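Suppose a colleague, Dr. K., hands you the sequence of a protein chain of 74 amino acids and asks what its three-dimensional shape might be. Before reaching for any lab equipment, you can write down a predicted structure in token form. Begin with the sequence itself:
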Amino acid sequence: MKDNDYKPKQLLTKREKEVFELLVQDKTTKDIAQELFISQKTVRNHISNAMQKLGVKGRSQAVVELLRMGELKL
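The predicted structure, expressed as tokens, is then:
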């Protein structure tokens, strides 16, 4: 394998990233749940799991960290 073929493992799952992409569009938990066809509890679980991975204590801190890391775009 060539060095430039290496891709680091993604920090967030595809679904966690989708949830945060909708969060930065000012969507509510209810809006996100409806758009992704999942329950509001599942949305909250995705947010909580991502916050744990990032080592932050709130949604806004998670968004800031994901923006800083280049995982999210505004």
